[in-house]
Write a structure and sequence with these properties.
Blueprint lengths: L18 H4 L13 H6 L6 H12 L6 H8 L6 H5 L6 H15 L4 H14 L3 H16 L2 H7 L9 H4 L17 E2 L7 E5 L5 H4 L1 H13 L2 E4 L9 H5 L3 H15 L6 E4 L2 H7 L2 H4 L7 H10 E3 H7 L12 E4 L3 H4 L6 H8 L5 E2 L15 H4 L1 H18 L3 E4 L2 H13 L5 E4 H12 L2
Parallel strand pairs: 2-3, 2-4, 4-5, 6-7, 6-8, 8-9
Antiparallel strand pairs: 1-3
Helix pairs in contact: 12-24, 18-20, 22-23
The chain binds iron/sulfur cluster (2 copies).
């Protein structure tokens, strides 16, 4: 199981990071160069060591100040520091605990509270709301309004053009029509897996979800898409909304009945990290604790799963020069770096080029690139310098959020590289080989 990033506290109780976690930091500074915000700003308080120092101060009675909140808000929660740290500091669960504590303390305006509650409680977990939002997005794009807004630079005076550039494409038909269905293995059935399709991804990454099902089928999997599945709760957790995340976890555990499957598959590294941590999230819920542990033990990122089985090698060539950008929640959250590279290298015709610092965050980080757009763009520009240096014409990654960010990067700072999920590249190889 992945190293847990979750809180060691009862759901909803915002106590801040555990002192035992804070005490593990020996202030050596070996994590500093792995931190994108420190690399950009060179400010100690925007480094992992500096943030831990500030968390410790708060744990020992200091006030939660605006400056403290600002330094923690700027953290991407990418967990690059966790991988770099020789002392095993569990930074991921510390930043989530600190954010839950800030959330309990932060006085938001009534409008901000209502808007937040609406998005987190009534949009992300609701199929009807997501479909309505997806339809509105589709109209914005299909009627040419988006082209007009971009072409005339209408959002530039409001500083919103870069955020709009990150808008995903609404992909019709949405993937919702597949939820509740079972897709048979192609040729002999060797595995039976459940697929969790995400929330926003059903609208904006419908083709990726379909490709994931096809690739699994091609690899002898019967793919069940449980009808009652919902949002995994990752965005709620990252925003300090632990109780809601727990409630979504219970819904997914009931929906999947994981003991009936060889694996519970996700194609989103961010979701996978959270799904693997349901056991930790519900540890104090006696009714769900054991089921949550069993569920998490079955969760596999789709690249992790495919690299662990006898991969179907009946592929045709895909003639691209590809580089791979690690998704933080896969590389640092789940410690999976080899599997996606291994899958890419297995594709005939594909020339693989490793980029420098591939495991440094691209600036996507959930909704970070929207709420902290300026810093996200600085980080992205630097990332694209590394991508451009490889000469690759395709950037592969393993998380929908990273795909959006890198897609914007390719347009704004790159050479128009194509961006695809590793599974989409594999799907091309299998489809090329189909009669
Ligand atoms: S978090 Fe780890 S690497 Fe960073 S200063 Fe503390 S002990 Fe050193
Ligand atoms: S999680 Fe990422 S941004 Fe935050 S302190 Fe660690 S390396 Fe820096």
């Amino acid at each position: 199981m992945a190293a847990s990033s979750l809180l060691q506290l009862a759901p909803g109780v915002a106590q801040g990071p555990a002192q035992s976690d804070l005490d593990r930091c020996v202030h050596c500074g070996l994590c500093l160069n792995a931190c994108p915000t420190y690399r950009e700003l060179g400010v100690e308080m925007d480094s992992p060591r500096g943030r831990i120092y500030q968390m410790n101060e708060v744990a020992n009675g200091a006030e939660i100040t605006r400056s403290y909140i600002r330094h923690l808000d700027l953290c991407l929660a990418c967990r690059g520091c966790e991988t770099a740290c020789p002392s095993g500091v569990p930074y991921g669960r510390m930043i989530e605990a600190a954010r839950a504590q800030i959330e309990a303390h932060r006085g938001r305006s009534r409008f901000a509270r209502v808007l937040r509650e609406f998005v987190f409680d009534h949009v992300l977990p609701s199929r009807a709301s997501m479909q309505a939002a997806g339809a509105a997005l589709y109209l914005y794009q299909a009627t040419g309004l988006q082209r007009l807004v971009r072409g005339l630079g209408l959002l530039r005076p409001f500083g919103a053009a870069e955020i709009e550039a990150l808008t995903p494409t609404a992909e019709i038909p949405f993937f919702y029509s597949k939820i509740g269905r079972t897709f048979p293995a192609i040729s002999e059935r060797r595995h039976r897996v459940a697929f969790l399709a995400g929330c926003v991804a059903n609208v904006t990454f419908a083709r990726l979800n379909e490709a994931t099902v096809r690739v699994l089928q091609k690899n002898g999997c019967e793919v069940v898409i449980p009808a009652a599945q919902t949002c995994c709760g990752a965005l709620h957790l990252h925003s300090g909304l632990n109780q809601k995340a727990c409630s979504l976890a219970r819904t997914n555990i009931d929906a999947v009945q994981s003991r009936e499957f060889d694996a519970v598959i996700t194609n989103a590294a961010g979701c996978g990290s959270t799904l693997k941590e349901y056991g930790a999230l519900l540890r104090s819920d006696m009714a769900y604790r054991d089921q949550a542990e069993a569920f998490s033990a079955k969760v596999k990122d789709v690249t992790e799963f495919l690299a662990s089985i006898n991969l179907n090698r009946e592929m045709k060539s895909v003639h691209v020069v590809a580089t791979y950008q690690d998704s933080c929640h896969l590389a640092h959250g789940q410690k999976i770096k080899t599997a996606p590279r291994q899958l890419l290298r297995s594709i005939p015709g594909l020339i693989y080029k490793e980029m420098p610092m591939a495991d440094l965050c691209c600036g996507s980080a959930g909704i970070y690139n929207v709420v902290e757009n300026e810093m996200a763009m600085r980080i992205l520009e630097r990332k694209m310098q590394h991508v451009n240096a490889t000469g690759a014409n395709l950037i592969a990654t393993a998380n929908p959020g990273c795909m959006l960010q890198l897609g914007a990067g390719a347009r704004m700072f790159g050479a128009g590289q194509q961006v695809q999920h590793v599974i989409e590249v594999l799907d091309r190889a299998y489809r090329n080989s189909s009669p």
